[in-house]
Specification:
This protein is 36% helix and 23% strand. With 493 residues, it is of the alpha/beta class. The protein has three domains: 236 residues, FAD/NAD(P)-binding domain; 88 residues, no CATH class; 105 residues, Polyamine Oxidase, Chain A, domain 2, CATH 3.90.660.20. It is globular, with a radius of gyration of 23 Å. It starts with a strand and ends in a 10-residue tail after the last helix.
């Protein structure tokens, strides 16, 4: 007998689960509050034929299961793209990943020497058990390189001091990278083709796959294929609250519907929002812990320009405190299909902010004028080359890793044991600043548990590389019997 599942959110996690559960013959309903787009923060929006991402999304994973899923959905519509990115600092552009001698030349002999001495000092006298972002990065790179290449950009992203950001974020996002590993990679870059992805530092990859028309193409196609399997996707239909009684769940929507009889609910909605709207109410510790979680929002100002001063980077990190922009995307470099006119270019200037602050509430005209001024100041194009602009606001883009986040998430995780059938998946669902492959793997494991009818996998044991470690092959044979071809490859352990 098929099971009935509600999925909150049609982003990578929600649609991955919907597709796999649909293939298994389960009854699935997806509730998405956006009236038009699926994909969540991995959607691709369009304006006058120009396509642009909400941030850049590289399709690269150490998980073959995730890579196979992408291939199954889009096949030949995935392009192989070169990775090209730089850092803008002190009116100069530095290749990233590091090109050792270029960096040496641009920083100058004196500054480079001071950076090396600072690095050696950090190696000789590291901060023991670093708890904040600054101490963790200084241990890896030295104080001087931290100040040059990490501090300004990171504080733009988060809006708080690097001392207030948990070391967990650094360990997760730049895992395996230090000054020595970056220099080694620059001097002895592995030859292209083949290779062991498990040994690749994600921060240093030099190519990735990418859908022809942006990441939203992946999830739009996934939605179409899911519907063909019988999955219902309700657009413009947010969820106000969910309730459970007698082993069944009821979903109450913003369209004033109450749909009951669900055996499971998978939620990729922000943890803070979901926990506040579950009945029976979560225990006070978990309820207040969820309320204490923070988020960082951001907006993209899209500039459509004459392609006069083309640059080839996918994106550029802006480490200059004299401008507010934090990162600049070049959508044409992600894929030439993103820009309909070869004589034009399309750039996305990303501004990190808090919902409701001065940047967030500025008019589109004000933001477009700011972006035009700042991109000319940086030297990437001229104000006069800009022919049009567009603004996209993205609330809750990043779950904040402050010093209390881990304790808060753990309290919610513990309380979830008393709510059978409720799974939290994805970036905001689990309050984990992850890549989309991690979000997808949590959804894959949730789907496997549901299809098997038992808890074979703990979703919280998926690491940053979308690998499941804790349980190893626990339940593997039994899972394969249930899932058949849904498990084409062994989960890394």
């Amino acid at each position: 007998m098929s099971k009935k599942i509600a999925i909150i959110g049609a982003g990578p996690a929600g649609l991955t689960a919907a597709y796999l559960l649909g293939k298994a013959g389960e009854q699935v309903t997806v509730f998405e509050k956006d009236p038009q787009y699926v994909g969540g923060i991995s959607r691709t929006e369009s304006y006058k034929g120009y396509h642009f991402d909400i941030g850049g999304h590289r399709f690269f994973s150490k998980s073959k299961e995730v890579e196979d899923f992408w291939t199954e959905i889009l096949g030949d519509e995935m392009l192989e793209r070169p990775r090209s990115s730089r850092i803008y600092y002190n009116k100069k552009f530095f290749s990233y990943p590091l090109v050792a001698f270029e960096a040496l030349n641009k920083l100058g002999i004196i500054e480079s020497g001071l950076c090396v001495l600072s690095y050696l000092k950090a190696k000789a006298f590291p901060v023991k058990n670093p708890t904040n972002f600054e101490d963790w990065v200084v241990n890896q790179f030295g104080q001087r390189l931290f100040n040059i290449f990490f501090k300004t950009y990171t504080e733009k992203v988060w809006g708080i001091s690097c001392k207030e950001i948990s070391a967990d974020w650094a360990a997760q996002r730049i895992k395996g990278l230090s000054l020595s590993s970056a220099i080694w990679n620059a001097l002895f870059k592995p030859k292209g083709g083949g290779g062991d992805k498990d040994k690749v530092i994600k921060t240093l990859i030099d190519s990735f796959r990418y859908p022809k028309y942006g990441p939203g193409m992946m999830w739009e196609t996934c939605a179409v294929k899911s519907k063909a399997l019988g999955v219902q996707i309700e657009m413009n239909c947010g969820v106000k609250d969910i309730s459970t009684a007698d082993g069944k769940w009821t979903v109450h929507t913003t369209t004033d519907q109450s749909i009951g009889g669900f055996d499971y609910v998978l939620s990729s909605a922000p943890m803070r929002e979901l926990i506040a709207h579950v009945s029976p109410r979560f225990p006070e510790k978990a309820f207040s812990s969820a309320a204490g979680l923070g988020y960082r929002d951001f907006l993209t100002v899209v500039l459509i320009c004459k392609d006069e001063d083309a640059f080839t980077d996918n994106w550029i990190y802006i480490h200059d405190p004299s401008v507010k922009v934090g990162r600049i995307q070049n959508f044409k470099s992600w894929s030439p299909f993103m820009v309909p006119d070869p004589e034009m270019a399309c750039y996305g200037l990303e501004y990190f902010c808090f919902e409701g602050d001065g940047l967030w509430t500025s008019s589109d005209e004000t933001l477009i004028n700011l972006a035009k001024k700042e991109i000319e100041q940086i030297g990437l194009t001229k104000d006069s080359a800009v022919v049009d602009g567009y603004v996209v606001r993205q609330p809750k883009a990043y779950p904040v890793y402050d010093h209390s986040y881990k304790e808060n998430v753990e309290a919610v995780r513990e309380a979830l044991k008393s709510y059978p059938g409720l799974y939290l998946v994805g970036r905001n669902g689990m309050h984990k600043y992850n890549n989309q492959d991690h979000s997808m793997m949590t959804a894959m494991l949730a789907a496997k548990n549901i299809i098997a009818g038992k808890e074979l996998y703990d979703l919280w044991d998926v690491n940053e590389d979308a690998e499941y470690h804790e349980g190893g092959d626990r339940g593997r044979e039994e899972t394969e019997k249930v899932l058949g071809r849904l498990v084409p490859e062994k989960i890394n352990n």
